[in-house]
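From the shared-data thread, chain only:
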Amino acid sequence: MQVDDVRRLLLGTFVRPPEETGGAPKVEPVHAYAVPHASGLVLLDTGIGAADEETEAWYRPQRVDLAAALAEHRWGLDDVSLVVNCHLHFDHCGGNPLFAGRPVVAQRTELTTAIAGSYTVEELVDFPGVRYELLDGEAELLPGVHVVPTPGHVDGHQSLVVVCDDGSVVLAGQSHDTASAWSSDALAARARELGHGEPLPTYPPWMTRLLDFDPRRVVFAHDAAVWIPG
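Structure, as C-alpha cells:
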C-alpha cells in the first residue's frame, strides 16, 4: 500500500456558529478516510448522523451518503472490515449503524463518556449488532495500522497512523481543527532541535509519538488542507 492509496471521503458539511468561532459563522467539511489494507478496508469515521432538532438547527448539517462516497472509489459498504472512530460525536460516528456486526474501535474512556449521556446521539453509539473493540491506549490494529491516543478535543480522542511502503500518513481526526494548528504544535515539538532556547511554547505530549512515525502527510476531519513536512 502506498500513501496515495489512503483516500479522503467528503461526507458532508456543517456551519459552525459564531458562538463557537468567536467571529463569523464558518462552513466546515466532515471528512472520513478509507485505508485499503490487505486485511480489508479500514474506515476512520463514518460521517454525520441524524441528531435532535436543537443540534440540527445549531449546526445546519448537509450530509453526503457514505455508500455513495465509497462508490466514487469503487468500494462498497461490504468492503469495510473495520471501523475506527477518532471519537463518538455525532459528526464522526453517524454511519456506524451501517456496520452492525463489524468491529468498531474506540478508546474505552470515550465509550464510557458517550454512554453516560449528554455527549452524543445515543442511537449512533448503542444500536443492534454493535460490536466494539475497546482500547486502553496505543495499539497496532493490523500490520502497519496504529491507533495513538490524542486527547484534547475530548479525553478519548484517538488518531490513526498508517505505515505504507513509501512512508506514513497520520489520520489526525480532530486532534487539531486545522493543518495550521498541527503545524504550530509540530514546530513547538521540534523547537529545541531547531536551536531555540527558553521560553518555548507547549504542545501535547503525544505529538512526539506521532512525529516519531515521520509522517509524509497529516490529514484532518474538519480541514481539507494537508500538512506536509518541510
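The domain at 3-219 is CATH 3.60.15.10 (Metallo-beta-lactamase; Chain A).
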